[in-house]
Amino acid sequence: MDMFIKGATILAIGGAHGFEPFTGDVHIQGDSIAAVGPNLEAPEGAKVIDGTGKLVMPGLMNSHLHTNEALFKGRYDSMPLEVWMLYAYPILAAKPLPPRLVYLRSMLVAMESLKTGVTCITDDLYESPRQEMHLLGAAVDAYDDAGIRATVSAHVVDKNFLDTIPFSREHVPQHLQEEVAKMPPVSISDYLSFVKDAHSRFHGRSGRIRFMLAPSAPQRCTPELMLAANDLAKDWGVPFHTHIVETKVQGVTGPVMYGKTLMAYMNDLGLLNPWTTIAHSIWVTDADIELMGRAGVSVAHNAISNQKLGAGTAPIRKLLQAGVHVGLGSDGISTNDTPRMFDVMHTAGLMHNVNNPDWSRWLTASEVLHACTLGGARTALIQDQIGSIEPGKRADLLILDMETVSFTPLNDIRNHLVYCENGSSIEKVIVNGEIVVEDGRLTKVDEKALLAELRAAMPEFLEYHSGVEAANAQFEPAFTEIIKRCYGHDLGFTRWASDLG
């Protein structure tokens, strides 16, 4: 059945109107937007939605998250990345989770995302100790059932973990090194077989699910695996999604291990391309940024997670000026600790102002909104499908009540969305032409029952995970020394809360 939103305020983001709100109508036919404009004629038999006092905008895009962290939501605090990873991405003692728990974990993120206006996610999905097809399938089932749009990966590391951290062989006790050596990484042939099977099973499912390639990071993967994944990403038209220089430790990793920055290393391998999406990109040099802009890569800016982990601030203005495409991400549900993108927009709109006296270089609300919609869609290579309200694009839309506290008194709608709104004004969320949230209620799943089931499963999981934490706590003294050593390493530049260049 057709859907017709009549007489609403529309923020299209793309098309003829761009970021200028206007009053008009939206005709949704099937899964797509058929027409947008003033004084349209409602088709006979269409479901008509009164848009008086409402704002219609594109659904928000979460360009980078790890739903595998959802069971650790609210668990960790005051840890830098390399220490936190010992517990959230354990080296020792991890075992595969039951598929139902993976389903509930994924559903938790999907439900909160949809209720707060996120219609599309890029899930860089990692399983400890390694990905298995039935677990990946459980996550996909959750996204399919909830009604969210998702690009999902099988995140991979094919190096001994200690060989991915500089100076680890000097600081980690020998007996622990021997324990790590007992766990051989996945072979390239097994990985390629897995991702080809996953792509055939899941890519295109329900018109909302896509599968991407996600080698974890250049220091964590062999060149052979990354090059093979890159070829598949290019052939399939999906992102090559990776992490580069999130922390100062990773900034040191390139010069120490490869004699060059990690970005230069990627460039030399031919792995900076228009289909490359890089999470973080904090400890980059001006030369790195030039390479990235020339290649037309995308960056997922994880504003909240980077602050919680003390990682630093990505030089977003420099990246934008160089021609890098920028989206926004929540990052993991243990380093944010939510997938709420209104929160991320708010933070991204503020953090680049700190200690930066040149306010002409601060991000505007329109730039932040673009990064969380059309820019985010570009990071997933689906900018021709979603991210703006234009005829022919998928109907992934939000309808917000503009008679709430967040929009009173009403001034610049763009500023209200970035600095005032938190998702509480949302009345309807539409994905692929289907209403999936209405008046705060998910329409496709029983939220209350699913949350109760997950709560009931948590005591057993936490008992197991406490043992995992204890096993991996043995590494913390060594990693603490490595982090201190790296922070004393001179990279020739700093990257904190300012973006002066």
UniProtKB/TrEMBL annotation:
Domain Amidohydrolase-related: residue ranges: 55-436
Species this chain originates from: Terrihabitans rhizophilus
Pfam family, any one: Amidohydro_1
Protein name: Amidohydrolase
Family note: Belongs to the metallo-dependent hydrolases superfamily. ATZ/TRZ family.
Keywords annotated in UniProt: Hydrolase
